[in-house]
Amino acid sequence: MRHYIALIHKDADSDYGVSFPDLPGVITAGTDLDDARAMAAEALALHLQGLAEDGEAVPEPSSLEGVMASAENRDGVAVLIPAPTEAVKSVRVNVTLPADVLSEIDHYAEQHGFTRSGFLAQAARKAIAA
Question: Which PANTHER family does the protein's record reference (predicted)?
């Protein structure tokens, strides 16, 4: 099983932020450490699924030593997040959205390291869970 290194950061008066050095732009946050770890697993799964759907290569995970060798990573707490082992079957669908909403979705997804499909899946899961 492959594991990716997530770095958890905490600033005063903020949630726990999580980033993946091997996957620039993939970020998430949690209200506590357990929530941050759970959100990291979800973000990783969605991102890897999005890469697969888009036919893009999935990068190999770096070693812990390699990640921590970078000075910019040393202020985070490293945790290993397992990559999903089961291939999630993706289904292609057609949806109709107003052009301005689609533009906002694409802009947000790009700024936060998601594909359009990955962002919409994450948004749907959050809405369903709420």
Answer: ANTITOXIN HICB, UPF0150 PROTEIN SSL0259
- The residue whose two tokens read 């802009």 is 107
| % of the chain beyond a pLDDT of 70 | 95
Place of tokens 């990640």: 67
Q: Report the distance separating Cα 22 and Cα 47, nearest Å.
A: 12
String of b and e for 58-97 (b: at least 16 CB within 10 Å)? Answer: eeebbeeeebbeeeebeebeebebeeeeeeeeeeeeeeee
In order of their start, the domains of the chain are: 3-129 (3.30.160.250)
Do 5 and 23 touch, CB atoms closer than 8 A? no
The amino acid that residue 26 corresponds to is: V
